[in-house]
Structures are given as C-alpha cells and as structure tokens.
Design goal:
globular, binds flavin mononucleotide, two-stranded antiparallel sheet, NADH Oxidase, 2 domains
C-alpha cells in the first residue's frame, strides 16, 4: 500500500507512535497493527539521488556480491528509528532473512516495530526479485541457525 500510494503521488509516514482508532472495532479476530499516515505532499515526493538516503552500506545487508543489486531495494526500505534491523544470507537458491536482536529495554520499545520493519523489507525484497525476473517458490518460517546478534525470520526459496 505504501509503495502504491507513492506511485499515485501521495506522501506517507509510517507512524509507530500511532494508536488504534477509537471510532470503530476491527473485524473479529483482528487487532490494531500499524498506522500509515498519508497526505498530498507540499514538496517533491521522491528524492533526487541515493545519496539522500541515510542507510548502511549494502555489504551490511548481504555480503554475497551477486545478490546485492536485488537487495538494494531492502537497503533503501524505511524502518522504525531508521534501525535497519535486517540481514540476509544466501545459501544456494535460498535467501535467509535475519533480524537484529535487541536488549531487554530496547526490545520493549522497538521489538514490535522491528517486526513491521522486517515485513516492509521482505515486501521490498519480493518486488525486487520479481523485477529481476526471479520468482519465489516458497517460504519457510522454521527457525534456523542465525549469525551472532540476530534471530531468524524466514527463508525464501527461489525457483531455479
Ligand atoms: C515501522 C515504522 C515506524 C515508524 N514510526 C515513526 C514515528 O512514529 N514517527 C516518525 O516521525 N517516523 C517514523 N517512522 C519513519 C522512520 O523514522 C524513517 O523511515 C527512517 O528514519 C528512515 O527515514 P526515511 O524513510 O525518511 O529515509 C517509522 C518507520 C517505520 C518503518
């Protein structure tokens, strides 16, 4: 939805400080997840250059050089407090997604937001894979061994 609004010329802000609206109950079985503010922008919507993004280098998102062009879309994704909690590893035709582990106090504030961040990052990844002519054959959410300081989120099986 965020990216579609962008193509329609509408500015957005993911708003972790948002609260569930009081003027209506969600459908049964659902609860408030996240707020995305949207408005007609008063300035140019898109940045003019990649240099305007304050992001970590691609080698800190994925070390395998052949995957870096596709993962650029994850690198540029928005994240709560710009925490960029994602890290990816390639194992043959499987891409493994990991999220940075937080200490007890930080987890209270940012833990749930980092899960939203991972969802945003993975959405950018799937769109970027499709753009590169690859397709996702399946998802695996079984926890797997993670690098130190990270926990495993999902593995994405690519078609060969
Ligand atoms: C899950 C999530 C929650 C966010 N919450 C807030 C917020 O409460 N207030 C705010 O000003 N920005 C919020 N942001 C925006 C981020 O701070 C912003 O995406 C990040 O600093 C990178 O900046 P950029 O998107 O302008 O490149 C949030 C972003 C995400 C993805």
């Amino acid at each position: 939805m965020d990216l579609t609004l962008h193509t329609l010329g509408i500015g957005r802000l993911w708003f972790g400080m948002g609260r569930d609206p009081k003027d209506g109950e969600p459908p049964a079985g659902l609860s408030y997840a996240m707020c995305l503010k949207a408005a007609i922008p008063g300035e140019p919507l898109a940045r003019q250059s990649l240099a305007e993004f304050d992001r970590k280098p691609i080698s800190e998102v994925i070390s395998a050089a052949n995957w870096q062009p596709v993962l650029e879309a994850v690198r540029l994704a928005p994240s709560a407090t710009n925490s960029q909690p994602w890290f990816f590893a390639a194992e043959g035709d499987v891409l493994c997604a990991y999220c940075r582990q937080l200490g007890f106090l930080k987890a209270k504030i940012l833990g749930r937001m980092n899960q939203i961040d991972m969802g945003i990052g993975l959405c950018h990844l799937v769109l970027s894979l499709e753009h590169a002519g690859k397709s996702v054959a399946g998802w695996n959410f079984q926890p797997r061994q993670a690098p130190a300081g990270y926990y495993s989120v999902a593995s994405i099986q690519m078609t060969a």
